[in-house]
Amino acid sequence: MLKAKKYDVANSNLELFGSDIERNVKKAAAEHENQWRGVGNAVGLKIWRIEKFQVVPWPVEKYSQFHKGDSYIVLNTYKVGNAFKFDVHFWLGSETTLDEAGTAAYKTVELDTLLDDVPVQHREVEGYESQLFLSYFPKGIRLLEGGIDSGFNHVQPETYQPRLLHVRGTFKSISCVQVPLSCSSLNAGDVFILDLGMKIIQWNGSKSNGAERNKAAQLCRAIDDERRGLPTVEVIEENENCAEFWNTLGGKSAIALDAPSSNSLVTHEPVLNRLSDASGRMTFTEVGRGRITKAVLSSDDAFILDTGAEIYAWIGKRASPNERKLAIQYAQNYLLSHSLPPQTPICRILEGGENEIFAAAFSA
Fold first, then answer.
1. How many whole angstroms separate alpha carbon 172 and alpha carbon 187?
2. Among candidate residues 314, 345, 317, the one with its CA nearest the CA of residue 332
3. Domain boundaries for CATH 3.40.20.10 within the chain
4. Which CATH superfamily hosts domain 34-136?
5. Which of 53, 56, 177, 232 is the most buried (most CB within 10 A)?
């Protein structure tokens, strides 16, 4: 049934006009952000870091590096036929501040508005990045300690602080995360890189796989290239004696067989909620659970779909301005009120722009 509130013949033109005014005001405000000038006009990847409430371009040579203490915005522009399409992600480090995270989310919405609501919005959390996000970085991403005030810059041999990088995964998905500089961080199942500034040591666990070894070798070369080929690179196996390696880690001790398992996202049956203001007030109602068909979706409303591993804020083509505006907020409130893992991905998607994961949550 069509919503009387939205489609009353006498009021429909006035409401649509008001909606256009609000959207134009927001777009005009977005156009005042210098960093958004020219975006969306060429295929490719752009990344910005949030620095003291400001959007600052992230150097291209660092595009695979993210600091745990920071928040970033990542825009991927691609073409379907002659039309530009976009995915915009805001990435939150585990140690980022609430101010930085809030700014990243707000600026992501602003960028979406500038691009006429065409982008699909994604919330990414450190260590739980979506496959789409990871696909932008064929050589993987590096998660580094620190943030805007403590990030690694130029290498000065006399003052450089050594760091230990943990490389693990398969050919489909490889991660690289900075870990404490200690022998207790090592395990036989993975590969580790000790970065001493002007010397890089790759340590191969006895049970590590070929993907991890190859990935670590690529990272060692990448770090070496960043420093103009000045560092020396050495590869050692688990049982080799390398005084410099073990001394830096505080001495050699027993090596764990594998890394501690991390908490994975809780999976459960899909749940669908409708967000609607057709009655004159905003309501949030469960309309499906378990085997849900796409026929439940209505272009007149917004819906929050919990797939069990990801939350989607789906915006119908005729959704009201408030439904569009509040969908992500309701998705985040849903996550908190249902005690779901805070790292659960949240994605805002418009009707017609659904991806395979979204579609797979529905029964045939």
1. 21
2. 345
3. 34-136, 154-248, 263-364
4. Severin (3.40.20.10)
5. 177
DSSP, res 354: -
**Are 32 and 111 contacting, i.e. CB atoms less than 8 angstroms apart?**
no
**Which residues does 315 contact at the CB level (< 8 Å), separation at least 6?**
302, 323, 324, 327, 348, 349, 350, 351
Which residues are CB-contacts of 37 (< 8 A; sequence separation ≥ 6)?
31
Categorize the per-residue pLDDT at 7 as very low, low, confident or very high, splitting at 50, 70 and 90. very low
Hey, what are 77's tokens? 């522009």
Structure tokens at 241: 């004696």
What's the CATH architecture for 263-364?
A: 3-Layer(aba) Sandwich (3.40)
Q: Write down the pLDDT at residue 364.
A: 54
Is the alpha carbon torsion for 65, 68, 71, 74 positive or negative?
positive
Beta-carbon neighbour count of residue 40 at 10 Å? 19
CA distance 315 to 298: 9
pLDDT in tens, 12-24: 333 434 445 455 5
Alpha-carbon dihedral 351, 353, 357, 358, rounded to 10 degrees: 0
- What amino acid occupies position 6? K
Cα angle, residue 98 at apex, residues 92 and 100 outer, rounded to 5°:
60
Q: What is the C-alpha to C-alpha distance for residues 295 and 70, in angstroms, rounded to an integer?
A: 41
CB 93 within 8 A of CB 170: no
- The CATH architecture assigned to 154-248 reads 3-Layer(aba) Sandwich (3.40)
pTM over 0.70? The answer is: no
Residue 167 and residue 175 in contact, taking contact as beta carbons nearer than 8 Å: yes
The distance of Cα 206 from the centroid of its chain, to the nearest Å, equals 32
Question: 28 by DSSP, 3-state: which?
Answer: helix
Place of tokens 């917004």: 302
